[in-house]
Amino acid sequence: MYMPKSFVETRPEALHGLIRDYPFATVVASTAGGVVANHFPLEWVKGALHGHVARGNELARMDGAEVMAIFQGPQGYVSPNWYPTKAETHREVPTWNYAVVHVRGRLKIVEDAIWLRALLECLTDHHEAAEPQPWHVGDAPDDHVEKLMQAIVGIEIAVEHVEGKFKLSQNHPERNRLGVIAGLRRRGGAGDASLAEWMAKLEEEKS
């Protein structure tokens, strides 16, 4: 990944935080037939990523393969009109702000039913937490859960390398960064509020 120094993010809490808040990953692998990409949620668990795929998925036959999981956080278009310096110099152009984390590691296929049941419970409890009456795996009949589990396999990616790129206008002066935050909040498009919040949090950490 192209990584200008201004945008490098190495803090574990920031990297793990993005994975926690944006768990839907793109998992890329190289096969004899070419590069393949699959999309499913992953959980960070003590130096590994855990998830599951259908038995028919090509990843289910790729035990030991090297893969990359890509997690994309908030992102959005940035207008040069949001920079105060644009009015002074007219030397600003549009760009795109975003935050991403790439995780590389070795794929392991897990068939153990106890492991898989625990994963399903973990994923469900995580994503049901905000519901007024959270649904739990145990709410479904055991025979139904067991039947469905036979159609999937567990995925474990032993993490070997993590890199984060948080492109949040760090290469601009403070007044331009604040202008972008204000512009995002004013526009209010899909994801704009989240991107503005991430930028504002970065400003707070600098102060």
UniProtKB/TrEMBL annotation:
Cross-referenced SUPFAM superfamilies: FMN-binding split barrel
Pfam families: FMN_bind_2 (PF04299)
UniProt-listed InterPro entries: Split_barrel_FMN-bd (IPR012349), TR_PAI2-type (IPR007396)
Protein name (Swiss-Prot/TrEMBL): FMN-binding negative transcriptional regulator
Native organism: Rhodanobacter hydrolyticus
